[in-house]
């Protein structure tokens, strides 16, 4: 498994020239969130779909 620094460097290398720092930060934040979610699943910390469906309406902005 690649370490976090290697993942960030690899991501930046694949982004097109002229990518803004804000867009780079968003991409890194997305990758971090995906990796965090995968780690939670590996630890058995998943939330049941039924629980998400029940709570989802309260998470939405009206």
Q: How many domain regions?
A: 1
What is the end-to-end distance? 41 Å
Q: Work out the strand percent.
A: under 5%
Which term fits the overall shape?
flat
Low-confidence stretches: none
Mean pLDDT: 91
Number of helices: 3
Structural class comes to: mainly alpha
The value of Rg in angstroms is 16 Å
The biggest beta sheet reads: none
**Helix residue percentage:** over 70%
Topology, number of strands: 0
SSE ordering: HHH
List keywords for this structure.
62 residues; mainly alpha; flat; 71% helix
Quick rundown:
The chain has 62 residues and is mainly α.
Overview of this protein structure:
The model has no long low-confidence stretch (mean pLDDT 91). By secondary structure, this protein is an all-alpha fold. The protein is built from 3 helices and no strands. It has one domain.
List the SSEs and their pairings.
Blueprint: H1 4-14, H2 21-42, H3 49-59
């Amino acid at each position: 498994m690649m370490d976090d620094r290697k993942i960030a460097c690899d991501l930046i290398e694949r982004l097109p020239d002229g990518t803004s720092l804000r867009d780079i930060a968003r991409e890194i934040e997305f990758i971090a969130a995906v990796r965090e979610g995968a780690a939670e699943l590996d630890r058995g910390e998943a939330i049941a779909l039924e629980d998400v469906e029940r709570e989802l309406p309260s998470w939405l902005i009206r």
